[in-house]
């Protein structure tokens, strides 16, 4: 596909899930750009809502002038009185020698030269005062809010609290995920390792080495005691998160691994692979319990229903399949997409399934009957990822067309088009309370959006490569991002 070439993703990547050029950790489209300053840009009052879809353009100027901190502002010069300029005087008003007696008294013949000296000093003082006044006016101007060119509202730019930059990986970082209690972050990297990090300090607690190929995905067990990693070496590994040691190596797939997910009780792990199959594994023994066959092409996408009874898989064959986790049998084949399926996601109540595709659409399906309930059209390029809000009222999608969209799950209508990214929008995630959606892009930024108004509320700069993945901490106070610049970042939100 031509669009794959445009974003630097090999057409043979697993499930065509947009693998980067592994020989270049930085975004190849920005080879000479300097690192972006790590700033937060906060927008001002939000406009009244208008009916129907709202298209929001980027209200922030590409060039931002930041206020000078008060501690660095030019100091006000001291103002000297006449006595200070003329020096000490006698009771009669005539200048006299200094108190120490080291200076001669002023003679009449010296008066013109003295007056000239006073004029020079006065001119200097006036010049300094004028410069100070100009600097003060400039400072006040800098402090004024910048007008929003699109909405007429105001935008305030301020330095953010610096994110924690997690360094140590020697290759692009593809995936980030928080542990269930939010205390630990796990990352997956092209360097063949996964890492565990303290989410408070940003320090590495364990380097999980052992895979013979790049690690594409990681997921915590529901109780947080186990981490599963999926690799291009055709294996899955289970790790003890306390010790960082491998507990099981899951073998059986004959091609690269793509995604994995635990059932809610943690007893079963589901995996997908470029070998065209999915598998279910017993996490206690590390043995395969079921091989899910039926797809006719790579299987890249996966989700498990909230009750753990159903697995959904998406394939390059353009279909979605639902499987019974107890029997490993197909219960429904979901036909409708015209091209590869890129993402699948159950609603929090498990009654519906959302999918995205290279055909430029997203779909909502009845998870019980396997029938389409809504076809979501509007994107002008492949739709990559989809996420469902916790209250199941909204969907968010990301696309190669450079936008994200918010959708009403009841009507299937687009409520907001989120524009501002300068390149394809890679990932999208809802905050736990559903009030914010985060997006990441090939433009090396992450953005936060208000889900009610669709307005861009913050732009997070700092990565110097495409931002590949994004997730919120369970309590919603921190955002984690993964970048092709070999780093992950933790952004404080509150």
Question: Helix and strand layout, with pairings?
Answer:
Blueprint: H1 2-6, E1 40-43, E2 54-56, H2 82-86, H3 111-143, E3 146-147, E4 154-158, E5 164-166, E6 173-178, E7 184-189, E8 193-198, E9 204-209, E10 215-220, E11 226-231, E12 236-240, E13 246-250, E14 257-262, E15 268-273, E16 278-282, E17 287-292, E18 299-304, E19 310-315, E20 320-324, E21 330-334, E22 341-346, E23 352-357, E24 362-366, E25 372-376, E26 383-388, E27 394-399, E28 404-408, E29 414-418, E30 425-430, E31 436-441, E32 446-450, E33 456-460, E34 467-472, E35 478-483, E36 488-492
Parallel strand pairs: 2-29
Antiparallel strand pairs: 1-4, 3-4, 5-36, 6-7, 7-8, 8-9, 10-11, 11-12, 12-13, 14-15, 15-16, 16-17, 18-19, 19-20, 20-21, 22-23, 23-24, 24-25, 26-27, 27-28, 28-29, 30-31, 31-32, 32-33, 34-35, 35-36
């Amino acid at each position: 596909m031509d669009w794959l070439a445009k974003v630097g993703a090999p057409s043979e990547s697993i499930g065509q899930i947009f693998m980067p050029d592994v020989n270049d950790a930085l975004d190849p489209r920005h080879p000479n750009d300097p690192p972006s300053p790590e700033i937060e840009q906060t927008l001002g009052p939000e406009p009244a809502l208008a009916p129907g879809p709202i298209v929001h353009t980027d209200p922030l100027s590409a060039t931002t002038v930041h206020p000078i901190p008060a501690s660095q502002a030019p100091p006000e010069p001291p103002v000297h009185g006449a006595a200070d300029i003329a020096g000490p005087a006698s009771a009669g008003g005539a200048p006299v020698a200094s108190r120490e007696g080291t200076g001669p008294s002023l003679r009449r013949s010296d008066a013109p030269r003295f007056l000239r000296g006073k004029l020079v000093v006065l001119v200097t003082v006036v010049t300094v005062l004028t410069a100070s006044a100009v600097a003060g006016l400039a400072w006040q101007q800098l402090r004024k809010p910048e007008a929003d060119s699109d909405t007429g509202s105001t935008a305030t730019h301020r330095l953010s609290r610096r994110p924690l930059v997690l360094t140590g990986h020697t290759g692009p970082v593809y995936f980030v995920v928080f542990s269930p209690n939010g205390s630990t972050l796990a990352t997956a990297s092209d360097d063949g390792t996964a890492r565990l990090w303290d989410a408070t300090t940003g320090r590495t607690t364990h380097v999980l080495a052992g895979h013979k190929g790049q690690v594409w995905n990681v997921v915590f067990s529901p109780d947080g005691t186990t981490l599963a990693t999926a690799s291009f070496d055709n294996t899955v590994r289970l790790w003890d998160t306390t010790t960082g040691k491998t507990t099981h190596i899951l073998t059986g797939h004959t091609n690269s691994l793509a995604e994995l997910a635990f059932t809610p009780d943690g007893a079963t792990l589901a995996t997908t692979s470029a070998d065209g199959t999915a598998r279910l594994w017993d996490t206690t023994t590390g043995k395969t319990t079921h091989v899910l066959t039926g797809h006719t092409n790579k299987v890249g996408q996966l989700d498990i229903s909230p009750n753990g009874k159903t697995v959904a898989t998406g394939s390059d064959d353009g279909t979605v399949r639902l499987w019974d986790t107890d029997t490993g049998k197909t219960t429904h084949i979901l036909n409708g997409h015209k091209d590869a399926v890129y993402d699948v996601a159950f609603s929090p109540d498990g009654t519906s399934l959302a999918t995205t595709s290279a055909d430029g659409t997203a779909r909502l399906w009845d998870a019980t009957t396997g029938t389409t309930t809504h076809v979501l059209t509007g994107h002008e390029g492949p739709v990559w990822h989809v996420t469902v809000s916790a209250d199941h009222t909204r969907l968010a999608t990301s696309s190669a067309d450079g936008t994200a969209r918010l959708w009403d799950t009841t009507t299937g209508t687009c409520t907001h088009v989120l524009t501002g990214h300068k390149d394809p929008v890679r990932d999208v995630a809802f905050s736990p309370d559903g009030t914010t959606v985060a997006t990441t892009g090939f433009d090396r930024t992450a953005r936060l959006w208000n889900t009610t108004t669709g307005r861009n509320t913050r732009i997070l700069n700092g990565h110097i490569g495409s931002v590949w993945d994004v997730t919120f901490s369970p309590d919603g106070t921190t955002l984690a991002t993964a970048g092709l610049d070999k780093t992950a970042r933790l952004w404080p939100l509150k």
